[in-house]
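User: structure tokens for this one?
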Amino acid sequence: QVQLMESGGGLVQTGGSLRLSCVASGGTFEKLAIGWFRQSPSKEREFVGAISASGLTTTYAAFVKARFTASRDNAKNAGYLQLGRLKPEDTAVYYCAAGNYAGLTEEEYDYWGQGTQVTVGS
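Assistant:
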């Protein structure tokens, strides 16, 4: 059983940056893709980005527009999501998830973290 723990959320001003971390325990991290999703109070959870198990392939939602970057360090069992040029509409709880494929849908991921709040002030 894989357990995921996110950290790094917080309050930041428009245009600022944050780096979210997702640390895994209890499984073979280097064989798992990592996906990032987010949910704001008035919206359903949505896909943000994903990185393959090898780290060679990344995929992002259209709204990211090169502002966010997913990465990973398999030696540390950690995945990261660097958030940049943040906007108020990026305010949400951000979740990391792990699965066999770096897919775009929640159903493709088997393990989920508890989420970390990102709030972007105007």
